[in-house]
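#struct-help
A.M.: can someone run this one for me? Single chain, 246 residues.
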Amino acid sequence: MKITKLVLLFNYQKILLGLLISGLFYWFSINVESELFSNFSLIFSGLIILNILLSIVASYILYDKSDLYKLEKLPEYIKLNEIKNGIFIHASFDPISRLIEKKYPKMKLVVCDIFENRHLEEKMIKISKREFPPNEKEIKLDPTKLPFADNSQEIIFAVTALHEILDHDKRVLFFKEAKRVLKNNGILIISEQMRNGINFIFFNIGAFHFLSKNKWEKAIKESGLNIHETKDINIFAETIIIKNCT
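D.P.: on it. Structure tokens below:
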């Protein structure tokens, strides 16, 4: 529940507003004379409550009950215990890099926070960083200019981070840079919530924060990389696995 609680803190103003509007329409439903408007108000009030409950349940399933922030269900050919050099990219929220370092002490992991991402100015980020303190080795990263030598990295993790690269051309530049720094057969792992129908149902306009699968595929293809496979984390998120085969 730890991350779900953070989500509730991030969105408490929206939740309170939704409850207020729901209560207002419920009041209309029992105080107006028009049966049509009364029924509409009651249904609308219920839908708001249902949407709030669905988003909370979905957040728990996505963030606390899934593999999104655990990376324990990767394909068997990704042998993390044998990897010596890797990069972990996040967007001002990092609940996982220390777990990777602890579990795979032989891996030299460079932890990177995307520079100037949308979350940096959010007040609630201070709360999340108290719960999950930034890695002391963390560096700021311009995703279009990776500060790593050619063919130097075996793996790149990008967990709920790359959707913060808002411009398509910059996303393509990131993937080109990833191709440059990854060794032959190096792996890029992208874990992201998708902008799709199921996320609209549970998170409504919050789904616009993410990218559609087509946009990911287009940027990856334009960079010269190819998707090796995709794996559903759950109904809300996917892992895209890219192999740098030259």
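A.M.: thanks! The first strand starts at residue 85 and ends at 90.
D.P.: also worth noting: DSSP finds eight helices and seven strands in the chain.
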